[in-house]
Design brief:
3 domains, 13 strands, alpha+beta, 22% strand, Immunoglobulin-like, single chain, five-stranded mixed sheet, 223 residues, elongated
């Protein structure tokens, strides 16, 4: 690649590289540097045409994003939507795609969970629809690791932390239970259980989750 020459007052003509452009007066080096840059671009184009520089293989996320955005861009052009609106939509799609990629690369949930099931009733009556939540004791869990359950029609429940029915991380917990009254018209009333069961500081219910499958002792309430 040829490099353009330039002269400074009192000096013989010499060559300048792109790296030197910022080390000399802009008025003297601008034309030479611009010419060198044009030669550099032309040389790279020629190499690409001749196959010397192999194009990099697109990533799976990039391929997926391109497959989605290409027809979207064409449709938006037909509708007369501007390029800035298109750019905003592409950024949103990229964020979702990267989020999926990060979750996939993470290998699943942030901590191991173990299946756990139990039964909740008051006397012989199942606590249908009661909400159960486990609060860790003496340990710290990720913010999104919240074991919960909803009591089914037969009084049974299965704990869920990350995906439905996956269980809970191993450890000791205090369980809180709330059972809201539901009227015939579908409206929800107050909690039918004593208040002490609604707070982790007053609930007498304790749960231990061990590695492997867990069958919890029955939750029996007296109103």
């Amino acid at each position: 690649m040829s490099t353009a020459a330039f002269s400074l007052p009192g000096n013989a003509p010499r060559r300048i590289s792109l790296k030197q452009r910022g080390q000399a007066p802009a008025t003297a080096t601008s034309a030479a540097a611009d010419e060198a840059l044009r030669h550099l671009v032309d040389a790279r184009r020629l190499r690409n045409r001749s196959g010397d520089d192999k194009p990099s293989k697109p990533s799976p996320v990039g391929e997926a994003l391109g497959a989605v955005t290409a027809p979207l861009q064409e449709a938006m052009q037909r509708l007369g939507i501007g390029r800035f609106a298109f750019a905003a939509i592409v950024l949103g799609i990229a964020g979702m795609a990267l989020g999926v990629a990060v979750f996939t690369l993470s290998g699943g949930p942030p901590c191991p969970v173990h299946p756990a099931a139990g039964i909740a009733r008051t006397g012989k009556t199942p606590l249908v629809g009661a909400q159960i939540r486990l609060h860790p004791r003496g340990m710290t869990l990720p913010e999104d690791a919240v074991p919960t359950a909803t009591v089914q029609a037969d009084g049974t429940f299965t704990l869920t932390t990350f995906t439905k029915g996956d269980g809970a991380p191993a450890g000791d917990y205090v369980a809180t239970v709330q059972w809201f009254r539901v009227a015939k018209d579908g409206s929800v009333g107050g909690n039918s259980l004593p208040k002490r069961y609604a707070s982790p500081t007053t609930s007498p219910l304790t749960v231990t989750i061990r590695e492997g499958a867990n069958t919890l002792p029955p939750f029996t309430f007296h109103r």
